[in-house]
Amino acid sequence: MSVGVKVRDNESFESALKRFKRVCEQERILSDFKKNERFEKPSEERKKKSLSSRRRVIRK
């Protein structure tokens, strides 16, 4: 799960950093990291999942 971005010729650091961040978002690296940052009990996971599904149903 290593993500790398090669800096192109005449490319600024800011644009390379922006590309790197975009790749990280597409690979969902930060969201996985935040999800695994602390332990969540299985019951809490189920509650969170049911709440999100209810919200989706209400929106539709």
How would you describe this structure to a colleague?
This protein starts with 12 loop residues before the first helix and ends with a helix. The chain is mainly alpha-helical. The chain is 67% helix and 0% strand. It has one domain (13-59). It contains three helices and no strands.
Unreliable sequence segments = none
Number of domains: 1
Order of helices and strands: HHH
Mean pLDDT: 89
What structural category do the secondary elements indicate?
mainly alpha
Overall body shape: elongated
Query: What's the number of extended β-strand segments?
Result: 0
Cα gyration radius (Å): 18 Å
Beta content? under 5%
Total helix count? 3
Terminal-residue CA separation:
35 Å
**Sheet with the most strands, sense and barrel status:** none
Q: Roughly how much helix do the residues carry, as a percent range?
A: 55-70%
Quaternary form: single chain
Offer a concise description of the structure:
By secondary structure, this protein is mostly helical.
Topology readout:
Layout (H helix, E strand, L loop, with lengths): L12 H15 L1 H7 L6 H18 L1
Which tags fit this structure?
67% helix; 60 residues; mainly alpha; elongated; 3 helices
